């Protein structure tokens, strides 16, 4: 027969509790590399930007502390407000259009038809191209005299357009490129969502008397809503900080017609070398992105419905 | 409420026949259970009645209307699914009122009907919750509530209790029965659990390989099963089947065991038979057939034992407390009035 005895259980408990405290100093060698890297590449640049934004500093000239003067100047800068409007228009259109066409494409590719896999492969190809290469190809296509787009329009009796060379048409034209490139991403996300949607409620709805449209409206759309929200978040953040395509195609022109905050910020800091003012702009832009992400994440949480999402 | 008539219904998947011409008449307000083992075609039959599966041949009538080729939404039926099939993004109230919303019913009327159904099922406090916030039993009640709100002509249940634990299953069984007694809507209930069918249904249809084996009231199926399949399927624990022949007024098994017979069955002599006796119709006796216990399971209220009597395995269910242990010799007595005889070749009752 074996016997069991407990010797001084209080001591054992004390020892167990004190272990983490004694081990604590040993954690630092493991944590330090990560802390150093994060501090160097994330924390320091941000602190430095904040510091620069409260200084008047044009490259090559002496720096002076001016407090919130750069921010006050920003509030009165019409060009900044104009660039904010351009950014908003560009972002909203670059989210809504790929979302609409991506969802439509996902519904098409969710059905079974011959060569579906092959066609889906072709459909996602724009997403894989480099933005600058895309910009160059589309710049050629947009050319009012030599571009293929005007040639195609002429075939259906529509006169030549100025595309990115026209102040009114430039943002819609850039959005067209953005939509062409990023609709496949939305399609892939929504297609994943459609695959995850349970099929049983559709039979319930059939018995409850739903038509095909009502099933789409009341079941499919709300059930893929969490996935649509993921697409909206990814696309919004991507579109609001879009730089490469715009810079490569128009550099913010004609005039300042396609100048988004990013382009204006870049021009201010690296063309006019007004580092302090550019930094203030970067800080405000950062706060806008944070606020937008916060709102989108809240909306996404409201769109959740599945057990999986709740965890 | 309505009658349901199923005439010569057939279902093929390509060359595979799964339902071979079935006829069932269901009276107005009747509770009918379709039972059978997995793959017997009971769920397919129910889905054909619901309009979720195409009918290959035959006709289905709900009331005076033939509905065989009508879409599900035009059949005026409600269905409760095994996995509940609730709308995951809608609250309990929205789930229950969805069918009325589709019909563009007045919101006040929807609210009233949802409240009434919630009252019947005890869901009043859960109306604002989402399905993911409910337990299995609550979800099943919501699925039933959704059916009640529709006030359909026929309720269809497709193994609604299979996903619940044993205790909840018993509770929900009672609730479904109570609901039927209260509302009185014609109900077709599919289950593979014969206990559910026995306890709930007015009439049971036993299906096997796409054929009807027997239709009847629960006790009729229990007392007078028409063939070996029904005899083995209805009743728990299952009936004992022992092969043998009638010789000199007694049933002699192939291994030489003599079993009692009721009077007047000697005419069945001279051919291979199957002797059927339910475990609960065997009593412990001071003198009788002797067997060695090879399995003993006590639940407190009863003892289930398997005996080896001259090489024949006989399952017994004793209601009285017996001190039986593995290897003990037990004497048993079979009531000849409760035995069943079947033709070995055809499987039919004599």
From TrEMBL, chain A:
Record's bilayer topology term: Multi-pass membrane protein
Q: Which PROSITE patterns match?
A: ABC_TM1
Q: Name its cellular compartments.
A: Cell membrane
Q: Which Pfam families match?
A: BPD_transp_1
Q: Where is the ABC transmembrane type-1 domain?
A: 84-298
Q: Which residues cross the membrane?
A: 27-48, 88-109, 121-141, 179-197, 218-237, 275-299
Q: Which family does it belong to?
A: Belongs to the binding-protein-dependent transport system permease family.
What is the protein name for this chain? Answer: Sugar ABC transporter permease
Automatic annotation (TrEMBL), chain B:
GO biological process terms on file: carbohydrate transport
The membrane topology term of the UniProt record is: Peripheral membrane protein
Q: Which residues form the ABC transporter domain?
A: 4-234
Query: Is Transcription among this UniProt entry's keywords?
Result: no
InterPro entries membership: AAA+_ATPase, ABC_transporter-like_ATP-bd, ABC_transporter-like_CS, ABC_transpr_MalK-like, ABC_transpr_MalK/UgpC-like, Mo/tungstate-bd_C_term_dom, NA-bd_OB-fold, OB_MalK-like
Query: Which GO molecular-function terms appear in the entry?
Result: ABC-type transporter activity; ATP binding; ATP hydrolysis activity
Q: Which UniProt keywords apply?
A: ATP-binding, Cell inner membrane, Cell membrane, Membrane, Nucleotide-binding, Transport
Where is the protein found, in the record's own terms?
Cell inner membrane
Which Gene Ontology terms of cellular component type are present?
Answer: ATP-binding cassette (ABC) transporter complex, substrate-binding subunit-containing
Q: What is its main location?
A: membrane
- Gene3D superfamilies linked to this entry: 2.40.50.100, Nucleic acid-binding proteins, P-loop containing nucleotide triphosphate hydrolases
First and last residue of the signal peptide: none
Is the Membrane keyword given for this protein? yes
Q: Which Pfam families match?
A: ABC_tran, OB_MalK
Family (UniProt): Belongs to the ABC transporter superfamily.
Q: What is this protein called?
A: sn-glycerol-3-phosphate ABC transporter ATP-binding protein UgpC
């Amino acid at each position: 027969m074996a016997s069991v005895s407990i010797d001084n259980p209080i001591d054992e408990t004390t020892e167990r509790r004190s272990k983490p405290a004694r081990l604590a100093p040993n954690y630092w060698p493991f944590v330090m590399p990560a802390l150093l890297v994060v501090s160097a590449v994330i924390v320091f640049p941000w602190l430095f930007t904040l510091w620069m934004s409260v200084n008047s500093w044009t490259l090559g000239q002496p720096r002076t502390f001016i407090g919130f003067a750069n921010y006050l100047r920003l509030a009165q800068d019409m060009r900044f407000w104009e660039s904010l409007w351009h950014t908003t228009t560009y972002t909203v259109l670059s989210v809504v259009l790929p979302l609409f066409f991506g969802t439509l494409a996902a519904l098409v590719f969710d059905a079974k038809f011959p060569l579906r896999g092959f066609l889906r492969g072709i459909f996602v190809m724009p997403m894989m191209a480099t933005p600058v290469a895309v910009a160059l190809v589309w710049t050629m296509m947009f050319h009012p005299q030599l571009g293929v787009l005007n040639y195609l329009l002429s075939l259906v009796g529509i006169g030549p357009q100025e595309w990115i060379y026209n102040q009114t048409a430039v943002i819609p034209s850039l959005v067209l490129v953005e939509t062409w490139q990023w609709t496949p991403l939305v399609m892939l996300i929504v297609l994943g969502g459609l695959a995850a949607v349970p099929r049983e409620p559709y039979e319930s709805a059939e018995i409850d008397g739903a038509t095909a449209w009502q099933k789409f409206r009341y079941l499919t759309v709300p059930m893929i809503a969490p996935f649509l929200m993921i697409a909206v978040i990814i696309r919004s953040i991507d579109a609001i900080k879009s730089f490469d395509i715009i810079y490569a195609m128009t550099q913010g022109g004609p005039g300042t017609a396609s100048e988004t905050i990013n382009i204006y910020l870049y021009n201010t800091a690296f063309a006019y070398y007004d580092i302090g003012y550019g930094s203030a702009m970067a800080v405000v832009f950062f706060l806008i992105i944070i606020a937008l992400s916060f709102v989108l994440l809240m909306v996404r949480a409201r769109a959740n419905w599945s057990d999986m999402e709740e965890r | 409420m309505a009658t349901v008539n199923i005439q010569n219904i057939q279902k093929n998947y390509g060359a595979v026949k799964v339902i071979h011409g079935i006829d069932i008449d269901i009276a107005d307000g009747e509770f009918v259970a379709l039972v059978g083992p997995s793959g017997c075609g009971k769920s397919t039959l129910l889905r054909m009645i619901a309009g979720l599966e195409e009918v290959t041949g035959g006709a289905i009538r709900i009331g005076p209307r033939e509905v065989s080729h009508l879409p599900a939404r035009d059949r005026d039926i409600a269905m409760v699914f095994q996995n509940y099939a609730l709308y995951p993004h809608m609250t309990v109230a929205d789930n229950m009122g969805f069918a009325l919303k589709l019909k563009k019913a007045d919101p006040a009327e929807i609210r009233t009907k949802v409240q009434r159904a919630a009252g019947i099922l005890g869901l009043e406090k859960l109306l604002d919750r989402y399905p993911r916030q409910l337990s299995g039993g609550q979800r099943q009640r919501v699925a039933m509530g959704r059916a009640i709100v529709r006030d359909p002509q026929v309720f269809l249940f497709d193994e609604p209790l299979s996903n619940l634990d044993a205790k909840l299953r018993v509770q929900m069984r009672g609730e479904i029965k109570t609901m039927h007694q209260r509302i009185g809507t014609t109900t077709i209930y599919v289950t593979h659990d014969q206990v559910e069918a026995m306890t709930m249904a007015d009439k049971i249809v036993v299906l096997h390989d796409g054929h009807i084996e027997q239709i009847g009231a629960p006790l009729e199926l229990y007392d007078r099963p028409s063939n070996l399949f029904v005899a083995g399927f209805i009743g728990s624990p299952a009936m004992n089947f022992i092969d043998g022949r009638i010789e000199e007024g007694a049933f002699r098994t192939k291994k030489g065991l003599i079993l009692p017979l009721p009077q007047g069955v000697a005419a069945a002599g001279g051919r291979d038979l199957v002797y059927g006796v339910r475990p609960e119709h065997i009593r412990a006796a001071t003198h009788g057939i002797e067997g060695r216990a090879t399995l003993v399971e006590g639940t407190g209220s009863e003892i289930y034992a398997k005996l080896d009597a001259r090489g024949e395995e006989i399952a017994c269910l004793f209601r009285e407390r017996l001190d039986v242990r593995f290897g003990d010799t037990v004497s048993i007595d079979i009531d000849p009035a409760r035995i069943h005889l079947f033709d070995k070749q055809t499987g039919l009752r004599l």
